[in-house]
Structure formats: structure tokens, C-alpha cells
Design brief:
Elements lengths: L19 H31 L17 H13 L3 H13 L7 E7 L3 E7 L5 E4 L3 E4 L5 H15 L4 E14 L5 E6 L4 H7 L13 E4 L2 E4 L1 H10 L13 E4 L8 H21 L1
Parallel strand pairs: 5-9
Antiparallel strand pairs: 1-2, 1-5, 3-4, 5-6, 7-8, 7-9
């Protein structure tokens, strides 16, 4: 990449100003390039979402939650790619399931009207269902939750349809308007999580975003960029409660030395105008 500008110094005999337009244009091109890349990522995300089949009332996005077979395949691929941290995390997920104490689940029962309740995972990884039913969730994946809950609910409640929506509590930090913790549907794209936090700031660079887990980088900037471009959901990208999605910041277009040169040029320009006008 060419430098943002080429320093131009005025000699005492100069009678024309340096080409400041080219300086500003170069900087604008750098910023415009970031905007274009972000637009491409969002466009790819929307295209991926649009290609998914339509769903009926109360259902999540088809294929938005990862199956057990898909996770087993992903674990093998991570091992083959020499990524032991990710492989271990996936195998632990297969063993322990997706739900932790404090996680929330939205339960909606459709009969004559829709009745919605929020279930909270209690100690022992259990939830309380209608009819005083206690359902253990140890080893249960998000993709397996709907069938298990629906089967139990229909034993005691007459309903046309049962909708079960797991929420994932993650932190969205970095270059977003309202950083913080959010309980977000597990079947929505990563970009939705960013918008929950108010969207990216003017200095954000989505391509430099990462995911941290237990104060360590769990997903690299390249992995996160690809996930956004593919329109992956929180579940498909393997995010779990407590993870941090850190939206990256743009690199500075001008370094301190370059800024100093610009200041010098601006001062000399002021002198030039004062002398010749």
C-alpha cells in the first residue's frame, strides 16, 4: 500500500501551494476501502440469510443451530488444522451441552393465544416446565432443546405449537455504540449481536474483530471475518455464555510523524496566504 501522502516542503521562492487535494484524496481512499470491505461483509451476510428457507410462526432460522453430527465433524476438522484449543472446546460442548446456570430460554405455547414464559437454568443445569416438570439439560445442545422441551410440555398442556428459543448471554465490546452484556437469540447472525450493542462506531473495523473466552483469544480476526461473511449464527460460530465479541478498531491512517508534517504544511500554507494576499 502506498503511503497516505508524500511530504512536500515549500522553499522560500515557491509561489504555488502543495497539492493538498491529493493528500486528502489518498486518506479518503484508505477510509473508503474500509467502508467497501465492511459493506461486502454485510452483503455476504444478508445473502447467506436470504438463501435460508422461510420459516413459520414461532420457529427459528432453519439450520441456524448446530447439530451433534456437525459439531463432531467440526472437532475433527479443528484437530486436523492443528487447533487444539478449538477442538477441545467443541468436544467439551458435545459432552456437557450448551446450557449453564443462569442461561435463559424463551418458551412460547400457542393455543388460542400465545403464552410466553422465560425459563432460567438452575443449579444442576435443570429448568422448571409447566406441570411442575423438572427437565435436566446436562449434555443437551441448543439444537436438541426444542424437541425435548416440546415433548414434555405436550404431556401436560394442549397446544397447537410450542416454540423454544435459547438465549446466549455474551459481551459485545470494542468499537460499538453501547458496549455491554446482552442475552441474544442463539439463532441470529453475528451482525445482529453487533447491532444489539448499537452498531459499529465510525472508527470500527469489523475485519479486526475477535472473540475472547476466559481472557484468551478464542476466535481470531480472520475466523470472525469469515463467520460474518458467511452469515453464521452465534450458535454456528460456537459462542457460549460469557464469551466476548470484541469489535476491532481501524488502524490510524496517519502516524505521529505524518501528522507533524501535515501540521508543518498547514502552518506554511497560512504564512503563504498571509504574504501573498
Amino acid at each position: 500500500m502506498r503511503p497516505a501522502f508524500s511530504p512536500v516542503f515549500m522553499s522560500p521562492r515557491m509561489t504555488t501551494l502543495p497539492d493538498f487535494h491529493s493528500v486528502a484524496t489518498d486518506a479518503a481512499h484508505l477510509h473508503h476501502g474500509r467502508v467497501i470491505r465492511f459493506a461486502v461483509l454485510l452483503s455476504a451476510c444478508f445473502t447467506a440469510a436470504a438463501s435460508m428457507p422461510a420459516v413459520s410462526r414461532g420457529q427459528g432460522t432453519a439450520g441456524a443451530l448446530t447439530s451433534r453430527d456437525q459439531l463432531a465433524t467440526a472437532a475433527m476438522q479443528a484437530e486436523q488444522s492443528q487447533n487444539p484449543l478449538q477442538a477441545a472446546a467443541i468436544r467439551q460442548r458435545l459432552r456437557d451441552g450448551d446450557f449453564q446456570v443462569g442461561d435463559r430460554i424463551l418458551l412460547t405455547v400457542f393455543s388460542d393465544a400465545a403464552h410466553t414464559d422465560t425459563l432460567v437454568v438452575r443449579d444442576g443445569r435443570i429448568i422448571d416446565l409447566p406441570g411442575k416438570v423438572v427437565l435436566p439439560l446436562t449434555g443437551v445442545l441448543r439444537s436438541e432443546l426444542k424437541d425435548r422441551v416440546t415433548a414434555e410440555v405436550l404431556k401436560y398442556v394442549k397446544a397447537d405449537q410450542v416454540d423454544v428459543t435459547p438465549l446466549t448471554r455474551i459481551a459485545v465490546l470494542g468499537e460499538v455504540a453501547r458496549p455491554g452484556y446482552f442475552a441474544i437469540r442463539s439463532d441470529v447472525p453475528i451482525t445482529d449481536a453487533i447491532m444489539q450493542a448499537g452498531g459499529p462506531t465510525s472508527s470500527a473495523d469489523i475485519e479486526r474483530s475477535v472473540v475472547r473466552r476466559a481472557s484468551r483469544e478464542y476466535r481470531s480476526a480472520d475466523e470472525t471475518r469469515q463467520a460474518v461473511a458467511k452469515g453464521l449464527t452465534l450458535d454456528q460460530f460456537g459462542l457460549s455464555a460469557g464469551d466476548e465479541l470484541v469489535v476491532g478498531r481501524q488502524r490510524q491512517v496517519f502516524n505521529p510523524a505524518a501528522s507533524a508534517v501535515l501540521g508543518t504544511i498547514a502552518s506554511l500554507s497560512a504564512i503563504f496566504f498571509a504574504v501573498h494576499h
